[in-house]
Amino acid sequence: MEGQLAHIGAGLAAIGSGAAAIGVGNVAGNFLAGALRNPSAAASQTATLFIGIAFAEALGIFSFLVALLLMFAV
Amino acid sequence: MATETHAADAANGASAPGMPQLDFSNWGNQIFWLLVTLVVIYFVLSRIALPRIAAVLAERQGTITNDIAAAEDLKAKAVEAEEAYNKALADARAEAQRIIAEAKAEIQADLDAATAKADAEIAARTAEGEKKIAEIRAGAMQSVEEVARDTAAEIVAAMGGKADAKTVAAAVADRMKG
Amino acid sequence: MATETHGAEEGGLVFHPMDQFIVEPLFGEGAVGFFTVTNVTLWMAIAVLAVIVLMVLGTSRRAVIPSRTQSIAELAYGFVYKMVEDVAGKDAVAFFPYIMTLFMFIVFANFLGLIPMSFTTTSHFAVTVVLALMVFVTVTIVGFVKNGARFLELFWVKSAPLALRPILAIIELISYFVRPVSHSIRLAGNVMAGHAVIKVFAGFAAIAVISPVSVVAITAMYGLEVLVAFIQAYVFTILTCVYLKDALHPSH
Predict the structure, then answer these.
(1) A12, B23, B118, C197 - which has most CB atoms within 10 Å?
(2) CB atoms within 10 A of CB C224
(3) Is the separation of the CB atoms in C120 and C110 below 8 Å?
(4) Rama region for C117: left / alpha / beta (φ>0; ψ in -120 to 50; rest)
(5) Nearest-CA residue of chain A relative to B1?
(6) How many whole angstroms separate alpha carbon A9 and alpha carbon A11?
């Protein structure tokens, strides 16, 4: 019983990955919108883009980690 | 399900849990080998690879700078050569113009002399021709007068008249004039 | 060994996406001790060899007109050097060999992990936590050595209203200490997730009807993983540079 509950919890935690996907899409989309408005400034900001994506993705990875912990470690 | 397998694993004496990352028994091993790896890579990079690549890049930069300088030099030389060429071309053109003008003047002078000579000749010929024509005309007039006199004397004789030559000649000359 | 036990129990569809991460001794059986030569050792050694082949043997001719290998080595050098200079500032160039070491190790470990049947060292938290903690400790020490107590200005946001500053200070302090956590889990999580997903798709290939879909999915995932392998190495390195910039110039 407890194991099955953990599996349900893992599935719920995996929703967080989808949320991170929205976040990453937001970052990349806004970057693209800005880059199309001012293409000359885009190249200098790719590093910032990756940092932003990394921060957004980190939280999704946390939820993925929680899912894994619930799946395998509980 | 996974929990059951784990229980079974544990029962079998297998050490692997569901997530090997969380099996802390092997962390020490991994950390030890990771530190060894990092130290080796660090020394290889900082002692051998990075200085070498930096040197190569600097050398290439130097070569490129030198080549660019040489290229600038050659370009300046090329511009100089072009200028000299243009100057020579202009000189040659001016010389050619001068020669052409000279030749033209010479030819003009020759032409003028020849024309004058030809004109003089033509004039002489014309004068000669006119003189001849005048002579011929005079000859012809004289012949006409003679014929007319003879004819008049014959006509007078045929009419049964008698006329001395002097009178006939005077009459003919009179007629010829009028 | 573990696979056999699983397989014997279940039959039919077999999903063991995590078995590829098991650390086991290369020679013989038994517990994994501190100095035991394991598959971790093997693949880290291969990574070291790859770094040496690329960065040392590849550049051994020191040609002004580079060969292909030398071009790649110079590209990697220029890539990381420019990143350090642009993100962390000119005075961070002293840390360039250290950051280069991190980048080369992670990028080679990630790519070597993509070879079928290989072992991915960077998928283990043990490895990435050590890498991230090393960065964290280095950055903290450098910050205090270079700036002394002024390093604490990093947590005291001067541009914010005075009333908000203590709250912001607490938030900044928490985010500072969460840094190594997110820094390490991001790398290991990304790499592990990709490999596990590939394994799950591979498990579906046992059913004949879905196996073509499975093969296509694995191929697509593999392409994505190649991208992720590089991007995660890049992100780890650039975040190191960002943290280093904070340590060297805490006022902005």
Answers:
(1) B23
(2) 13
(3) yes
(4) left
(5) A3
(6) 5
Q: Where are the domains of chain C?
A: 20-248
**Structural domain count of chain A:** 1
Q: Looking at residue C56, what DSSP letter applies?
A: I
* ipTM of this predicted structure: 0.86
- With an 8 Å Cβ cutoff, is C38 touching chain B? yes
Q: Which residue of B has its CA nearest to C35?
A: B29
Q: Do A71 and B17 touch (CB under 8 A)?
A: no
Domain range for A62: 2-73
CATH number for A30? 1.20.20.10
Q: Which residue's structure tokens are 């050569």?
A: B81
CB burial class (10 A; 0-12, 13-18, 19+) of residue C222? middle
Which chain A residues touch B2 with a CB distance below 8 Å?
3, 7, 71-72
Could you tell me which residues come within 8 angstroms of residue C17 by beta carbon, excluding any fewer than 6 positions away?
A: C195, C196, C197, C199, C200, C203
Q: Is the dihedral of CA C119, A24, C238, B24 positive or negative?
A: negative
| Whether B140 contacts chain C with CB within 8 A | no
Q: What is the pTM of this model?
A: 0.73
* Radius of gyration of the CA atoms of chain A, in A: 17
| Cβ of residue B17 closer than 8 Å to a chain A Cβ | yes
Tell me the CB-side half-sphere exposure of residue A30, using CA atoms within 13 A. 10
User: Could you read off the pLDDT tens digit of each residue along chain A, which spans 74 residues?
Assistant: 677 888 899 899 989 888 999 999 999 999 999 999 998 988 888 888 888 888 888 788 888 888 888 887 76
Please choose, from the candidates B153, C13, C86, the residue with its C-alpha nearest in 3D space to the C-alpha of residue A46: C86
Please give the interface size between B and C, counted as residue pairs whose CB atoms are below 8 Å apart. Answer: 142
